[in-house]
């Protein structure tokens, strides 16, 4: 296979979700990818909004970080460097740990990967398998208390216990946003901690889209936005 053909085929795989397609029908051998997730794992098939998406790394050796994640200078405030330890008991994780949580969620475990960003950011692409819960839906400065309560019950698995919340069956939540300089996922996490959500059931992918793009990992855009 020529380098040009290899780059064309792998570029297609890295940027085009498979809408219900069988990865075994791909134009090349997915098990023989040159840029894998790990030495023993080349790719994953992830369900996102009812369709199948190949989670893999970009194969084009000339591929670079896309805008706006290629920028290094952002005004602080508000785009200040976030700490590595966000809050006591909240675990900060990396890409491979996030992928493991994606696998667990795909297997039906009570795990939810949450993109905390607002609409304009989401349209640029998100992590396959994640759901969008913008920070404005949990932040007391923006969110209606009744809407927050509904979100806790219907999406996150919390239960009302008279005037208190019972989190004994709450899901494990994995939050991310734009990157180590972004405050949207930290805002979501702090809002939940203030409500009593167990910190050991909250994980934070600090690298966010900035580092996800750095590794050339697959992103998806909202349905109807992928032209």
Please identify the top-level CATH class of the largest domain. Alpha Beta
Number of domains: 2
CATH architecture of the largest domain: 3-Layer(aba) Sandwich
Biggest pleated sheet: 5 strands, parallel
**Beta fraction of the residues?**
15-25%
> Number of helix segments?
6
Name given to the CATH homologous superfamily of the largest domain = Rhodanese-like domain
Detailed description of the structure:
This protein is an alpha/beta fold. The protein folds into 2 domains: 3-63, no CATH class; 91-212, 3-Layer(aba) Sandwich (Oxidized Rhodanese, domain 1), CATH 3.40.250.10. Helices cover 25% and strands 15% of the residues. The protein has helices at 3-15, 95-106, 119-122, 145-154, 184-194, 208-214, and strands at residues 44-48, 51-55, 91-93, 111-115, 131-132, 159-161, 164-166, 172-176, 202-205. The strands form 3 sheets. The chain has a 5-stranded parallel beta sheet with strand order 3-9-8-4-5, with helices on both faces. The model is unreliable at 1-25 (pLDDT under 50).
